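Example record for the data management plan.
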Amino acid sequence: MIDLVKTMNDEEFVYSVNPNNFVRMIINTFDKGLEEIAKIPDIEPKILQDLYKSLKNETYIKTPMKPREKPLIPDPAARPRKYPDENKWIWDLIEELREELTRGLAPL
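Corresponding structural encoding:
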């Protein structure tokens, strides 16, 4: 919740919470959702125990993860050949979401 309050000298109005905190909170919720999805156990080894006899550990489904830093586009002519980060789309999605939320703060 955000409130509009007057300053001590009654000259201007300010928000009780910095609106940028809302952007951070939404992005953190998105990141936490990705982390929680990565904790979903894979049921295939439990169902097909004959095929997975060597697996004793709990395995988890393969999920997309947010890269730690902005993924770079590799040079296709470089040797050995490097491939783009498969999770670049998540980075792009989060950055687009951050930009749109920040743009939505402008009217405030």
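Summary line stored alongside the record: Residues 16-98 form one domain.
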